[in-house]
Design goal:
Chain lengths: 264, 564
């Protein structure tokens, strides 16, 4: 795990000491604090719902449908407007057909994007396209959108370059069926009344030590609890080794501060 | 080694982070170049390199790209700064050069070196090279070998010029270049791609200086240079002291010409220095295949890194212990205007020659000679649209057998290039590839077998075209080592199903629609006596098609059949 962490930080020229680690998955928060200490990362955040993040995302995300067609269209071509209009009309028909099968009464809002490049290049940049009628002015607008995207990425635009699109995508955005926020632990509060501490083995302490067993809700109020401690959630368990401290921030996320004296 | 001041020490994590950040800037420079380039050679074949220099032009970091370009970088930068001393450069400037002596040894490789400033202060330089699809001259692709007797026939020579002035590309210089090349759109696109890539890297380098401060980065760079020098010396000191020599021959330098002797004497001091002497090699030849000193040195450095397992990132520090002596006017140190367009096919031969010598010092790191790769250029005017085309091809065959394993096929030997996909060639050029396959029985037999040769048949779908061949090993086969057999000779054939006319490995000729060029690359050399090969490996070779039953009987002295 330490090597994997190195690959995405130090090996890319990013100093782990300037970052916080986000721990997720059912088992991630078990190991996170220890890995963070080895890598010199000062802080670990265990978001609420850390063990079921994908499920929350799936339930909360706005349903959308992307349909794409590949048509190399040079914007300086006399038939560019017609070709683009034909491509997007066909895409809309395709999207409608698919939406009608699952959600025929949905109110759909549309957005567009494309993969574009200078004619002659072999790789494209992603360009979010404006909405609007597919006319000659639209070509000017998407060329400007391309230039902005290209400049942002490559720090240069070629004023004499001929722009072409390769892949054209239409996105159908459907209304969100669920409330804005899901807090899985709101309804399933786990109380830690039955046990507040037990003997746990920590390599840092070279043996068994009395360890506090908490639920996330026991931390409400922002007070930091010194490790060793174990914070049990319905979906994951966070281990706070000796020397580190854990608290709950106002958004309901656990924050583990890695002890200074051991972070080298 | 510079004085190390412990009071200014950089902690280990910060040093590693800065070092990797510098390398990642050089890597991303290459990615931007690839993503914005126009020619197939740059955007598919990765025929380019990238580098970062400190404010004095000392090489600090490189991307992992073409070694011939990479190893030339430090010397290119010093020459360019001779023309443009740092104090004469302004923010937004960029210098362009393609001279064979200053750069990577032939005109198609254009370098752009861009100073990076912060608030008027020079921080360092970013740089990239790219192999342009054409630089004018006698034949499409500017790599014609035979009949080209001086550089002036090879196209446009650009000594260092201020190609970009304070952020504005010099349209006059651009017009001169584009007026002299066959594919102006691609050359323009690739020149702009180089500039674009430098701009993105300059932005990141300035940000890195901003994040850590100038003093800290400069101090880190000093440590990086000293460390990489110390590591290289440590590795070189492990090689037994002594002089190791080897000779091999190129077939010729064009139809009806003499072989070229490639000789090297490599002396290890035993305490961390190594000196290459190529002086016993042939004189420079009156054909476009000479190896300018930067190119010779680049592959000597590459070979040392490979043999000594010097995996640390390359810097000017790691190159300091490696000295080169080459007689002036010889094949490996020619003087202007010696022509050199076809020098790309030398890189594996410089390596092979060094490999033959170092095998004596480090037998377990050596290998049989590579198949010789093929680099033909086919160009003309496309009947379909009246525009020029150049099909710049790279055909890669076998690695030599090496200690512990057989040679692989179809991977780039020593130059980090990629195969250009058949589909890309067929989309952009009026050609059809009929055949792309390994040739059974062509790999040199041995305890570890050499990789097979490769056959590629290309049909011209245009009325006419000019074909410049660039191959070798049609006369002198790739050698085997420690008793391994040589690989099979290469052959190039025009219209194999018609009159099957043999083609010379460096000839240029006109071809017509329907002609099929059939390239059969040599097999690579084997390692160790064939008698010591594991019989099970021979049976597997037959089952996999690398070797036929007849070939196995001949090479290994008794009948074998496919592993059941």
């Amino acid at each position: 795990m330490e090597n994997a962490l190195r690959l995405v930080s130090i090996e890319r020229g990013r100093d782990p000491r300037n970052y916080a680690m986000i721990a997720f998955g059912g088992a991630g928060p078990l190991h996170a604090a220890r890995v963070a200490r080895k890598a010199g990362i000062p802080k670990v955040i265990v978001p609420h719902g850390a063990g079921v993040g994908s499920a929350i995302g799936l339930l909360q995300a706005e349903p959308r449908l992307d349909v794409t067609v590949t048509r190399v269209i040079r914007l300086d071509d006399a038939s560019a407007v017609d070709a683009l209009a034909a491509a997007y009309e066909a895409l809309e028909r395709q999207a409608r057909r698919e939406i009608d099968q699952v959600s025929p009464d949905a109110t759909v809002s549309w957005t567009r994007y494309a993969q574009m490049r200078y004619a002659g290049q072999g790789f494209e940049v992603h360009v979010d396209l404006p909405n609007g009628a597919l006319d000659q002015d639209y070509l000017t607008a998407i060329e400007a959108a391309f230039s902005a995207a290209y400049l942002r990425r490559n720090k240069f635009v070629d004023p004499d370059g001929i722009v072409e699109g390769v892949d054209w995508t239409l996105v159908a955005n459907l209304p969100r069926p669920l409330p804005d926020s899901i807090r899985p632990d709101d309804e399933a509060q786990v109380r830690s009344d039955k046990a507040t501490s037990r003997q746990c083995w920590f390599p840092e302490a070279n043996g068994f030590v009395e360890t506090r067993i908490l639920s996330r809700h026991d931390l409400t109020g922002g007070t930091a609890i010194a490790g060793p401690a174990i914070v049990e959630d319905p979906d994951c368990t966070a281990v706070v080794p000796p020397g580190d401290a854990v608290s709950l921030n106002p958004d309901g996320h656990l924050v583990i501060e890695i002890g200074q004296e051991t972070s080298q | 080694m510079s004085d190390f001041n412990p009071t200014k020490s950089v902690d280990a994590i910060t040093l590693t982070v800065i070092w990797n950040a510098l390398i990642s800037i050089a890597e991303e420079l290459g990615i931007t170049l690839r993503n914005t380039a126009f020619s197939e050679g740059v955007r598919e074949g990765d025929d380019f390199a990238t580098a970062l220099f400190d404010k004095n032009g000392v090489l600090i970091a490189q991307g992992n790209f073409s070694p011939g370009h990479l190893g030339s970088m430090p010397f290119m930068a010093k020459h360019v700064l001779g023309y443009f001393p740092a104090e004469t450069l302004k923010p937004g400037d960029s210098v362009l050069v393609n001279d064979s002596f200053i750069g990577a040894g032939h005109f198609p490789d254009t370098y752009q070196l861009m100073p990076v400033f912060d608030d008027g202060q020079l921080l360092g330089f970013v740089c990239c090279s790219a192999h342009q699809v054409d630089m004018g001259g006698a034949a499409p692709g500017s790599q014609k070998v035979h009949g080209v007797t001086e550089s002036f026939q090879e196209g446009l020579r650009i000594l260092p010029v201020r190609f970009v002035r304070e952020g504005q590309i010099d349209d006059d210089i651009m017009r001169i270049i584009l007026g002299n090349v066959r594919m102006p759109e691609k050359v323009r696109g690739d020149l702009l791609a180089q500039h674009t890539a430098n701009l993105t890297a300059a932005d990141r380098l300035a940000k890195l200086f901003g994040d850590y401060g100038r003093d800290l980065i400069e101090h880190a760079c000093t440590i990086i240079l000293d460390r990489s020098e110390a590591t290289m010396r440590e590795l070189l000191a492990k090689v037994p002291a002594g002089t190791y020599s080897f000779e091999d021959y190129m077939d010729d330098y064009g139809p009806g010409t003499e072989p070229i002797k490639m000789a090297v004497d490599i002396t290890f001091s035993g305490d961390g220095d190594v000196e290459f002497d190529f002086s016993r090699s042939s004189d420079a030849v009156p054909a476009a295949i000479n190896s300018y000193i930067n190119y010779t040195r680049a592959y000597a450095v590459f070979a040392i890194k490979t043999f000594c397992n010097a995996l640390d990132p390359q810097t000017e520090g790691s190159m300091r212990p490696i000295k080169l002596t080459v007689r002036e006017g010889s094949f490996f140190n020619p003087e202007f205007p010696a022509p050199s367009g076809g020098r790309p096919i030398l890189q594996i031969r410089i390596f092979d020659t060094i490999n033959g010598a170092l095998a004596q010092a480090m037998p377990e790191r050596a290998m049989g000679a590579f198949s010789h790769w093929s680099n033909p250029n086919i160009g003309g005017i496309d009947d379909r649209n009246g525009r020029p085309f150049v099909m710049y091809d790279v055909s890669l065959a076998g690695y030599g057998g090496k200690f512990g394993s057989d040679g692989e096929e179809a991977m780039s030997p020593v130059m980090n290039c990629s195969n250009i996909p058949v589909e890309v060639h067929e989309t952009h050029n009026p050609v059809r590839v009929h055949c792309l396959e390994l040739i059974p029985d062509s790999g040199g037999a041995g305890r570890w077998r050499g990789g097979c040769g490769l056959r590629k048949d290309i049909e011209l779908l245009n009325s006419t075209a000019t074909f410049s061949h660039l191959g070798d090993r049609h006369v002198y086969p790739p050698y085997g080592i420690f008793g391994g057999k040589p690989g099979a000779l290469a052959e190039s054939i025009l219209n194999p199903q018609g009159n099957a006319e043999p083609l010379q490995s460096k000839e240029t000729r006109s071809i017509k629609g329907g002609d099929i060029l059939s390239f059969r690359l040599s097999g690579a050399g084997g390692y160790g006596p064939p008698a010591e090969r594991d019989p099970a490996a021979i049976e597997e070779d037959i089952a996999d098609g690398y070797v036929t039953e007849a070939g196995a009987a001949e090479d290994y002295g008794r009948p074998y059949s496919a592993k059941p």
